[in-house]
Amino acid sequence: MNIGLAIQKAKQILDEERSSPTVSYALAPKPAGTDPVSAAATLLPLVALPVMRSRRPREVLTDPATFGFSSVNCDLLRALMSQVAERGRGQFLSYVCQRLSWDVGCRKQHPSAFPSWDNMVSELPLVVEFLVRYGGKEDFFRFLETKNLAMIPGHVLMLMQLEDMIALNYTVFIESEYPRLASAVRCFWSSMKTFADGSARRGPGNTIVYGRVRYGELGEINLLRWYNEVTAICNGITEECRKARYLFLKGSLLEGLNLEVNQDRNKVESYLRKFGFSALLVSSLDEADRLYRSDATTLEFKSCIGHLRSFLENLQKEAMPRIHGRFGGTLPTSWGGGLAYLLQNSVLSKTEEQFAAAFYTLISDEGVHPLIAEKEYARLARNMVIEYALLFLTKLDRLGLASLKAASA
After folding, report:
1. Tens digit of pLDDT for each residue in 399-408?
2. Which of 34, 123, 192, 293 is exposed most, by the fewest CB atoms within 10 A?
3. Is the model's pLDDT at 371 over the cut of 50?
4. How much of the chain exceeds pLDDT 90, in percent?
5. CA contacts within 13 A on the Cβ side of 9
6. Rounded to an integer, what distance in angstroms lies between the CA atom of residue 409 and that of residue 392?
């Protein structure tokens, strides 16, 4: 689909979300046959959710699978982006991110669902969920980090959704992203303070008086109440970031995960950014990590391995044009053809090529084709994909290919 047309359709979806929000978190479905007593017990988190949302800092649930995110309009945006060519998806995500600064970012309405503030609802909760979950994290981080950002009322609802997301599904961010998120939120708060101080007036004794700000159809907004709400949310999110990092650490230690593999995972992500690989490639690795949990179902482990195999395939596919730019010849288009090309040009040794081929076959046969993939295969696939990716990317770096433009650019 033409990117211009896709952006027009995305605008329609986001305009509708402002009119009738669809974002929500609900209890994840339980397996069929769950006994009535256990089924009733699982409803307790749902009953407690309104109380949890009233407290700051929010409690970060240790089980991120308790609640699941859903949104009809988020599904529509995903379907729309899938129809955009790979080269245009970054532009699509950038447009969605621009909605974070568009107009007032909300409308007056008497809401019956979360999030709402001062009788306002917004499309920005959907925007932040879509960006974080489907390849736009970097756009979102850069937005929060913008100095002296122009504040709009919808930002309160954006922050409330971010607060909810971390509390209920903290694994949507990986461990290494939380320090940056906390820092970005502090930058955003600084912009809010600059805006509030600039919109205030001087009272008796040269004191700062926060009055009211008028926004057309929204009417007047109490600036002090706005500032205090943003301050409370930003402080709460900063604490949530700390807690989420602790939960990652706790999980890695108690579940016996190899800490060196986790560190190598961060190195892989750094290389992917350095080489300019697609955001969707990074997000496929993020999704595999999200699905790899001690309490995951067998089908979730299967899905985890599917994401890992896709990551392995696309890592080689996206790297191949720049490798071809160095060595020439016929550009391979298949996994096997790519391995043969890498061997022929001494990017991989014969042993490394044999390992990569055998490993790919293993995760395909044991993890993707059968109905069920057990945790042992998920652990093996996760750890070996990370280590092979680090080996492969290190070789590209030593060849100096990070400085070359991909042939497809």
Report:
1. 887 655 444 4
2. 34
3. no
4. 60
5. 18
6. 21
Sequence-distant (≥ 6) Cβ neighbours of residue 381 within 8 angstroms: 304, 305, 308, 309, 363, 367
Residue 388: per-residue pLDDT: 94
Q: What is the mean pLDDT of the chain?
A: 87
- Identify the structural domains of the chain with CATH numbers, from first to last: 3-254 (no CATH), 259-403 (1.20.120.330)
Are 213 and 199 a contacting pair, CB within 8 Å?
yes
Q: What is the 3-state secondary structure (H, E, C) of the chain?
A: CCHHHHHHHHHHHHHHHHHCCCCEEEECCCCCCCCHHHHHHCCHHHHHHHHHHCCCCCCCCCCCCCEEEECHHHHHHHHHHHCCCHHHHHHHHHHHHHHHHCCCCCEECCCCCCCCECCEECCHHHHHHHHHHCCCHHHHHHHHHCCCCCCCCHHHHHHHHHHHHHHHCHHHCCHHHHHHHHHHHHHHHHHHHHHHHHHCEECHHHCEECCEEEEHHHEEEEHHHHHHHHHHHHHHHHHHHHHHHHHHHHHHHHCCCCHHHHHHHHHHHHHHHHHCCCHHHHHHHHHHHHHCCCCCCHHHHHHHHHHHHHHHHHHHHHHHHHHHHHHCCCCCCCHHHHHHHHHHCCCCCHHHHHHHHHHHHHHHHHHHCCCCCCHHHHHHHHHHHHHHHHHHHHHHHHCCHHHCCCCCC
Radius of gyration of the chain (CA): 23
Q: Which amino acid is at 318?
A: E
Q: Which two tokens stand for residue 330?
A: 């016929």
Lowest mean pLDDT among 182-196, 245-259, 260-274, 335-349: 245-259
User: What number of other Cβ atoms are within 10 A of residue 343's Cβ?
Assistant: 17
Quote the pTM value. 0.66
Orientation angle between helical segments 259-275 and 279-291, nearest 10 degrees: 160
